[in-house]
Amino acid sequence: KNQVEQSPQSLIILEGKNCTLQCNYTVSPFSNLRWYKQDTGRGPVSLTIMTFSENTKSNGRYTATLDADTKQSSLHITASQLSDSASYICVVGSILTGGGNKLTFGTGTQLKVEL
Amino acid sequence: DTAVSQTPKYLVTQMGNDKSIKCEQNLGHDTMYWYKQDSKKFLKIMFSYNNKELIINETVPNRFSPKSPDKAHLNLHINSLELGDSAVYFCASSQAHRAGEQYFGPGTRLTVT
Asked: N or C: which end of chain B has fewer CB within 10 A?
């Protein structure tokens, strides 16, 4: 069964500090892995996307890593800001038999950045 | 110049009613999706439409029916609403071959009383 598990469930850090969010998946066959940021009351917004051959991707202060062998990904946030407070969702894409894609969503990590 | 828009943003209705949520995208994408986000913030895909064909249909109650009048619209109709239908519903769109790059709408918060 395709699953995406994220840890921690929630995290509180001080402004300016770094943090790392984890994502483990059992999705097969693997197509891509994406990290989304979802602000309260809004739809998810894409941060990074990685395919099988990529092991790191950066977007400003966000850096995602992917280890396809161990089926793990991490999202590292550098020099956190209050606006980073949001839910971060790991999404893994798999290829359907006959074509098309299916996405499996993680339950998310709720990050709160405090002064 | 909103990419993916949904209406209404909030919907409060009573059990047993029939309601619709509209979604429109101006990105020129050929695939649109509907997701349900429950109180635990888990996003569950409900439907996916590509060129007016249903290509993913998760095991949702048949009270839910997507209707796509054209490539830019995918509306969600819900019949005989139940308390458990209360959630936030998100519409999204993408190019079919790049399903991992979905763009989401702002969501519609449905409350059934």
From this structure: N
